[in-house]
């Protein structure tokens, strides 16, 4: 058996250099320096093969081959250093660009965070104002309810479409003798004499922008007695429906002395 020819194996090793240089060039990019480096390594590998296979050296002497190698190796080192420098510069440029983009992103995040904080503060102020408005509205409703419920004069609210009573205060129940349930089952027309219903319907059809003092009306109490009342009314929206707030002032006792004086 023949011993392995190590010189032949060593001479074939440079053949691996060009494919590997080509692979590195494909990985790091197709820069011009990379292609020059690939070409130089290919020439170096070819010379190594020629030197190892001297019988087929194409007329090149050993001295000539060594001179070419002595010139080519420093050139390869220089080209390799330039190529590495270009790679590091590119990496530095990418890192700087990444740093710049990160700074811009952080600035945008800060700006958007500041905008969100401002919007949140504005929302908090709006919520506070709405709470304050709701509290004031609640107090106004309580004051209105107190003025309505505890008013010493009879007051009620009726629907302008159906004439049904929507709300009645305590003074109305005391003055007319009807309970709250009685009023709820009645309409505003039921307080009138039959001959006054037509005039009352026409009067209710007229809208009023403010408090309007209207003419005298005759009302029937639960016990059947008739009283004369002076009506002050104001139109409003109650639970989303057109309604009228009425204050009734009993003038029966005031008018009887006048009639007696006129008769005398």
Overall 3D shape? rod-shaped
Mean of residue pLDDT values = 77
Count the beta strands.
Answer: 5
Secondary structure: helix percent: 55-70%
Estimate what percentage of residues fall within beta strands: 15-25%
Radius of gyration from the alpha-carbon trace, in angstroms: 54 Å
What ranges have pLDDT less than 50 throughout 5 or more consecutive residues? none
Reported for the largest beta sheet, the result is: 5 strands, antiparallel
Q: Numbering strands along the chain, what is their spatial order in the largest sheet?
A: 2-1-5-4-3
* CATH class label of the largest domain: Alpha Beta
Q: What is the fold-level CATH name, i.e. the topology of the largest domain?
A: Beta-Lactamase
Return the CATH architecture of the largest domain.
Answer: 2-Layer Sandwich
How many separate domains make up the residues?
2
- What class, by secondary structure content? alpha+beta
Q: List the secondary-structure elements in sequence, H or E.
A: HHHHEEHHHEEEH
Q: How far apart lie the N and C ends?
A: 166 Å
Please tally the helical runs, counting DSSP H or I stretches of 4 or more residues.
8
CATH-level-4 superfamily name of the largest domain: PAS domain
